[in-house]
Automatic annotation (TrEMBL):
Residues 161-216, 237-264 are annotated as: Disordered. It comes from the Bacteria. Residues 167-187 have a biased composition (Low complexity). Residues 242-264 have a biased composition (Pro residues). The keyword Signal applies. Residues 1-22 form the signal peptide. Keywords: Signal. This is Lipoprotein. It comes from Candidatus Accumulibacter aalborgensis.
């Protein structure tokens, strides 16, 4: 059981309606910040999907359904949205209080700002621009329950200072990705170019603060996954059902009254 310094999810969303109903502990949904609409979730072969509009800003909405605090490690396109590292479940994340909802609108840049999430091409995505395009099109949340308080006193770990994403940390993440990925995966295929990824947009205000959290277990209690792509791609893959054509109405033998004159 590890005691870590995590970020408290300070941005709450009142009255958020979660359509995914994805996890036992945490629900996840996507808000299109450009239109103000929550994206419809489609279920297909055991997976959940949303259709994003290229260029639109979006936010991931997390809701704690449990009666205790939870640690949520948020991954977007295989990258930790808090640190910018290639995502692993053991990393830091956002802590949600019981019944709390939080809006995560971008890549964490400091304790006060994030770089906005927006739907874009693979090449323009943050993953693509940092040589990690292999996992674009997926949002994941690893959820940890909090351990029971320990009776004996213990020394709290001091949270590591964070400002903007450290240049060395970013370079390290890119080096890890290059070492792990085969050389042939570095080039993005034409087919991949048609898919959606998540961009690194303008800075927006998103204040947060540190809090201590001790995981009840080394493995997450659950992992919730939500896939995304363009409406056209999801329609072509059969994930979004095509609308059924309306049958032509049967001819009416008595549509009117008296016989009109024909046109001259």
């Amino acid at each position: 059981m590890k005691k870590i310094a995590a970020l408290f999810a300070a941005l709450s969303v009142a009255g958020c309606i979660t359509v995914a109903d994805a996890g036992a502990l945490v629900d996840i949904s996507v808000l299109d910040r450009s239109s103000g609409q929550q994206l419809e979730v489609y279920r297909h072969r055991g997976r959940l999907y949303v259709a994003g509009a290229p260029g639109n800003r979006y936010a991931v909405i997390l809701r704690n359904k449990s009666a205790g605090r939870l640690l949520t490690v948020l991954s977007v396109d295989g990258i930790n949205a808090l640190s910018g590292q290639t995502a692993a479940t053991s990393q830091s994340g956002y802590v949600l209080s019981p019944a709390q909802s939080a809006e995560i609108s971008g890549w964490r840049k400091s304790m006060d700002e994030v770089a906005a999430f927006y739907f874009t091409s693979v090449a323009d995505s943050y993953a693509g621009r940092t040589d990690r395009p292999q996992n674009v099109g997926v949002i994941g949340v690893a959820v940890y329950r909090e351990a029971e308080p320990v009776a004996m006193p213990e020394v709290a770990m001091q949270p590591r200072a964070r400002g903007s994403l450290d240049a060395a940390e970013g370079a390290s993440s890119r080096a890890e990705a290059k070492a792990a990925a085969p050389a042939q995966d570095a080039a993005v295929s034409k087919k991949a170019e048609t898919r959606l990824g998540t961009g690194h947009g303008e800075r927006i205000s998103a204040p947060t603060q540190y809090t201590d959290f001790r995981r009840a277990s080394d493995s997450p209690s659950e992992v919730v996954t939500l896939y995304y792509d363009s409406h056209a791609n999801l329609l072509a893959q059969g994930i979004i059902p095509r609308p059924r054509p309306q049958p032509n109405p049967a001819p009416n033998p008595f549509p009117a009254g008296f016989t009109p004159d024909p046109p001259r």
